[in-house]
Amino acid sequence: MNNSIAVSPSLVRGHLAAINAELIELAKIKIVDSFQKIIIDELEKAKILIEIYLDKLPKESESNQEEILAQTQKDEQEYKENSRAFKPEESDLLDKFNEGKFQIVARSYPMLKVFEKIIAFKDASNVLITGDTGTGKELVANWLHKTSKRNEKELLTVNCGAFDKNLIEGELFGWKKDAHNNANIDRPGKFKSANNGSIFLDEIGEVPLEAQAKFLRVVEYGDIQPIGSDKQEKIDVKIISATNRDLKNKSSKGQFREDLYYRLREVAIHIPSISERKNDIAPLCFHFFQKFFKKYAIDDLDCDINQFPKNISLDSFDILRNCEWRGNVRDIRNFIRRLIMLNKSHMSELKPSMLVKLYHDEDLTIKEILQDSNLSTNSKTKYKYFDIFEKYIEFDFNTSKTMTYYNNDIKTINRQINSVILQIGNSVGFESPDIIAHLKNEFGINKTEQENQFGEKIQKRITSIRENINKPSAKPIFHNEFKSIAHSLKHEAS
After folding, report:
1. Does residue 2 fall inside a structural domain?
2. Torsion angle, CA of 164/170/171/173, rounded to 10 degrees?
3. Same domain, 149 and 249
4. Taking the CA atoms of the chain, what radius of gyration do you get in angstroms?
5. Are residues 71 and 134 located together in one domain of the fold?
6. Where is mean pLDDT largest: 60-69, 119-128, 455-464?
7. Are 169 and 253 part of one and the same domain?
8. If exposure means fewest CB atoms within 10 Å of the residue's CB, which of 180, 187, 276, 439 is most exposed?
């Protein structure tokens, strides 16, 4: 029975480009330690499997091959760009946006490009912001206003999707007294209220087609005509629009005026989804963790900041890098808020290894993990295994000394040490980028010499466990981004 996973050729070529770029960078290192050698070997194996898989695909036409080559080169360039260190002026720009009321937390190159566009387009009359739900379009709109010459007035925000199609025209353009039954006085619309300032039209794609003609005159000429009036009024307003829809596609189907689309899109800023800027995941998680820890754990429980979980740092959230954040930044914020609200009395016991489990099961609590998981200290047998593993480290990874200390046979000691590796693998989730990193964190391995020896010894055990991966009792424990793709390609190539 073939349990292989379907893999798209374009995705595979993207992984190949990333592997090639990583091997180039590793080749620049003059002194390579044993753990880096293991990484290089695994990358080379993955590369071979990918090339075998690509060779089995139907041959592409010459024009398609040129497109593929161009895309591969682009993927390599983007990978290199995202891997290099920030220049001082780039770091300063990221820091600038990471402060104040409209703080945007980001440490990725895709968001750096967004910030550069905000600065460049700050005085443009019409800006269209695109991006998926939850990416932060309103924050970008606020920065466009804040950095403009119109920032003396507050940004006026309008959710175009919140109005009934029969009411939106009056809300935006206003009405004159007696224009309809309930019009007892003149009422200025949102556009007039924003005069000499900026207006943010969120969900612009939801504006009814019949109301779009009036939008066109505002955008093009700065003219508004209140309902019940036969006169045009002049306004001067910066129009910032946002949508998660494909307006160009809607205009081709006659669902959105094409002329309005191009006028709104004097300049455009696209905000990438979280899947396109994974370097922002850990900083965002840590930002929201600090924020909600203060709000729910400190303020509600009247504890002090010194009770912040000792095991949690910015790097702790790297374990969530490969999780699927469909709601983007909003999804990350909601996850961290829920985590702290459900577990505020157990926050001191939170460990990085628990985060993936808490992500996958929103009803799970830290208390339940401590009681029921393989890491529970309530089980004497499992605690003994952890105790044995600690002694194994203390004896400089000497199995014979560990066996003698516990007066046990070598087979049993090896089984118990491997059991700890499996326990950690199960607890952190099989999408964890590096099981060794979690073992180091769990057992406090921080000396360079010991780290290298630890990586070498434990990798041999992991390799041994993986050789028995097809046995019913075995479970996969060492999947990172390249190895998981290689695992599926192995079936495709066979």
Report:
1. no
2. 140
3. yes
4. 29
5. no
6. 119-128
7. yes
8. 180
Given 255, 274, 293, the domain boundary residue is 274
Please name every residue paired with 198 in a beta bridge, in sequence order, or none if there are none: 238
pLDDT tens per residue across span 235-256? 999 999 999 999 999 999 999 9
Residues 436/456, Cβ–Cβ less than 8 Å: no
Residues 73, 168 within the same domain: no
- For residue 9, what are the contacts with CB-CB under 8 A and spacing of at least 6? 54, 57
Supply the range of the domain harboring residue 393.
380-493
304 band by pLDDT with thresholds 50, 70 and 90: low
CATH of residue 255: 3.40.50.300
What are the pLDDT digits (tens) for 439-478?
Answer: 666 666 655 556 666 767 777 776 666 555 444 443 333 3
How far, CA to CA in Å, does 473 sit from each of 205, 372, 432? 53, 20, 20
CA distances for 211 relative to 156, 179, 244, 260, 403, angstroms: 20, 17, 20, 11, 80
267-293 pLDDT, tens digit each: 999 999 999 999 999 999 999 999 999
Name the residue with higher pLDDT: 200 or 306.
Answer: 200
Residues 389 and 417 sit within 8 Å (Cβ to Cβ): yes
Q: What percentage of the chain has pLDDT greater than the value 90?
A: 34
Are 181 and 142 found together in one domain?
A: yes
Phi, psi of 223 (to 5 degrees): -105, 135
Per-residue pLDDT at 41 exceeds 60: yes
Q: Supply the pTM of this predicted model.
A: 0.63
Residue 276 main-chain phi, psi, to 5 deg:
-95, -5
Total domain count, the chain: 4
Residues 401 and 488 in one domain: yes
Query: 386, 378 in Cβ contact below 8 A?
Result: no
Distance CA 207, CA 169 (A): 9
* Those residues with Cβ within 8 angstroms of residue 288's Cβ, 6 or more apart along the chain or in another chain: 332, 333, 336, 337
